[in-house]
Write a structure and sequence with these properties.
Blueprint: E1 5-6, E2 9-10, H1 21-40, E3 53-56, E4 59-62, H2 78-93, H3 101-114
Antiparallel strand pairs: 1-2, 3-4
């Protein structure tokens, strides 16, 4: 575990900040990469949204993995992956980022299953 922020100013939740439009795409890409990386490490967050992402100094940190699941242990977890991606896409849509959550989840899942 790691504290994110400084001594008198903890990092805010993503929902509490207004991003600069020009930084939104790179932050969205970062979250999607981290979802894919977690999946490659056999983890799906299961409750990912702007409430479980911290923003600090232009970077994002995903937190609260208490509900994370191992896709090798539960074949019905694709729905959780899709929900995580849908929530991220919905948040970033306010910054003009238009993506297809179903396509992102499907491609990520296919890569995962293909090894």
């Amino acid at each position: 575990m790691e504290y994110i922020g400084d001594i008198n100013d903890p990092a805010p939740l993503l929902r509490e900040v207004t991003l600069e439009k020009q930084e939104a795409q790179s932050l969205f890409d970062c979250v999607i990469r981290n979802i894919a990386l977690s999946l490659a490490c056999d983890r799906i967050h299961g409750d990912l949204s702007e409430y479980n992402i911290l923003h600090w100094s232009g970077t994002l940190s995903i937190i609260d993995f208490a509900q994370a699941v191992d896709p090798r242990q539960n074949p019905a977890v694709y729905a959780l992956l899709l929900r995580d991606i849908e929530r991220v896409c919905r948040y970033f849509a306010r910054y003009g980022i238009r993506t297809n959550a179903n396509s992102l989840a499907s491609e990520m899942w296919e890569r995962y299953q293909g090894g």
